[in-house]
Amino acid sequence: MGVKSFHELIIWQKGMELAKEVYLLTKKLPQKERFGIVSQIQRSAVSIPSNIAEGSKRGTSKDYGRFLRISMGSAAELETQLLLIRGIYGIDISDHINLLIEIQKMLEVIIRRLRI
After folding, report:
1. What is the value of pTM for the model shown?
2. What angle do CA 60, 66, 67 make, to 5 degrees?
3. pLDDT band at 21 (very low <50, low <70, confident <90, very high)
């Protein structure tokens, strides 16, 4: 991959940024959601950069691709959850969605390039 550390990966950096923003967003949700959608959204958001990092350290392109696909699944899950809270609570999630779409596009490109 030519990268010494996953910290250098722009996609990981953007995933971390999104996870932080999602944590800030969930603070706006009602306390009653703490063990419901808040917990689920936070896990989905953290899963994106976590799987990028883990896959990058697995040592093979095949493993890396597998973990990137897991990140892609978490991104789809997060998108669904963000759309749900927008629909229920009317919270503006446009910045979150824009960053998430950018990450999804980056994941698609990297996954495509890894397929040999």
Report:
1. 0.92
2. 95
3. very high
